[in-house]
Design brief:
By secondary structure, the chain is of the alpha/beta class. The protein folds into two domains: about 270 residues, Rossmann fold; about 120 residues, Rossmann fold. The protein is built from 16 helices and eleven strands. The strands form two sheets. It has a seven-stranded mixed β-sheet, sandwiched between helices. It has a four-stranded parallel β-sheet with strand order 6-5-4-7, with helices on both faces. Helix 3 crosses helix 6, helix 3 crosses helix 9 and helix 6 packs parallel to helix 7. The relative contact order is 0.18. It binds pyridoxal-5'-phosphate (PLP). The site of pyridoxal-5'-phosphate has 21 residues, from helix 6, helix 10 and helix 14.
């Protein structure tokens, strides 16, 4: 298997994708701003890396600092929990805020939220449930990292590591929630389960709106030509593609090329884009990869139409590409700031490095992929580091540095 496989999306459509997503994202952002520990995460420019790789500019949105949870995922779970509570209280989404939901806790009673997770989503849900005075029960797939289990338990949630692969753990959590009459807050959608995952995607929109504003004040090279988006079930990539695409479009910027990135072992979006019809494909097998957050074999039903219409290309990559990205960000070029980025967070940087590497001869695999993407000296590339060192053992082994202490919860 080559380190990188790439396929052009032959079903890409022109025009705005889901312009309404920007409006919903604005409501989510207003709510997020009321949460303890809320702050925009940094958009970091890496001029040294851009010069080394031969592109015009590289920007990284650093989600390792989000709410003290080391990943962007709390954005989705907190907005979904808020929307669930808002519905029970008869509150419109515009009226949701932290203080109001906390004050309504006696009226609501104690609710139990259930989910399955590779780590980050469950930690985000456990945090959101605790913050708003409720309980969370979290199921994890076989092989879950001890540090990720501990981080979920630290948020007061009950966490059970199953012997199942990710997609089966999701089915298990759904069945458990039905039995308990609890509320399933899952970050992927299927037939008949769409409302809560759509709120989760709206919540990710906060990140997109922040990024659009930060890019707008970044100077003449701040209009990205290429945006690399990691995909597990595809909710993150679809949400960012739609809401960032809409926000950039509204500012008059040309539409960037959105490119999905997945591990070879869990490449459901890549397979679906390659198949080039209306049906998403699944990825069979154990889904074993270093990139735990991306270890998902089934594309979300809500994400698929957006990815199908909006991606320029899809990539599947080896674990070594993620390792390369982690090292590149941790040990930057002179003058660039170091970034703590975990396996699933750094894979976009590793992909960019692979794409821009010089090769003997003009027709090497990287050169062909660059041509397919239209990537070169004039390109501005946006990467989103979606997590920090959420598995410190792996991060330390790969980078040779000591991982920072686990982020404190934002309360
Ligand atoms: C760090 C990180 N990046 C990216 C993703 C991908 O998100 P999605 O599953 O919505 O595609 C995840 C999912 O858990 C993640 O944890």
């Amino acid at each position: 298997m080559p380190p990188v496989e790439i396929v052009r999306n032959r079903q890409r459509q022109a025009g705005p994708l889901a312009p309404e997503m920007a409006g919903s994202a604005r409501l989510a952002r207003k709510f997020h701003a009321t949460l303890p520990g809320s702050a925009s995460t940094p958009l970091v420019r890496l001029p040294g890396l851009a010069a080394r790789l031969g592109v015009r500019a590289v920007f990284v949105k650093d989600e390792s600092q989000r709410f003290g949870l080391e990943a962007f995922k709390g954005l989705g779970s907190s907005w979904a929990v808020a929307r669930v509570l808002g519905e029970r209280l008869g509150l419109a989404p515009e009226r949701l805020d932290f203080a109001g939901l906390r004050a309504a806790r006696p009226q609501l009673g104690e609710l139990t939220f259930v989910t399955a997770t590779d780590g980050n989503h469950g930690r985000g849900l456990a945090w959101a449930a605790r913050l708003l005075g409720h309980r969370a029960r979290v199921f994890m797939p076989a092989g879950a990292a001890a540090a990720r289990v501990a981080a979920i338990r630290e948020q007061g949630a009950q966490c059970v590591v199953t012997d199942l692969a990710y997609d089966d753990a999701v089915r298990h959590a759904a069945a458990h929630a039905r039995e308990l009459d609890a509320i399933l807050v899952q970050d992927t959608a299927w037939d008949g389960y769409e409302q809560i995952p759509s709120w989760i995607m709206e919540g990710y929109g906060t990140l997109a709106l922040e990024t659009a504003e930060q890019l707008a004040v970044s100077g003449p090279d701040g209009s990205p030509s290429h945006i690399f988006l990691q995909a597990g079930v595809g909710s993150f990539a679809a949400a960012v593609l739609a809401s960032l695409g809409a926000a950039l479009g509204a500012s008059g910027a040309p539409r960037p090329a959105f490119v999905s990135v997945e591990p070879h072992a869990a490449d459901c979006v890549f397979r679906s884009i390659r198949a080039a019809d209306e049906n998403p494909r699944t990825c069979p097998g154990s889904l074993e990869t270093l990139m735990a957050g991306l270890s998902c074999g089934e594309v979300s039903r809500l994400a698929w139409p957006l990815l199908r219409a909006g991606l320029a290309a899809a990539c599947a990559v080896s674990d070594d590409v993620a390792r390369c990205g982690m090292r590149l960000l941790a040990r930057p070029e002179a003058g660039d700031p170091p970034l703590v980025s975990g396996e699933s967070g750094a894979v976009g940087a590793g992909l960019l490095h692979w794409l821009m590497q010089p090769e003997p001869g003009a027709r090497g695999a990287s050169a062909r992929a660059r041509e397919l993407l239209g990537l070169g000296r004039a390109s501005t590339v946006l990467l989103i580091s979606t997590e920090g060192a959420t598995n410190p053992t792996v991060w330390e082994a790969v980078t040779g540095d000591a991982a920072p202490a686990r982020g404190e919860p934002g309360s």
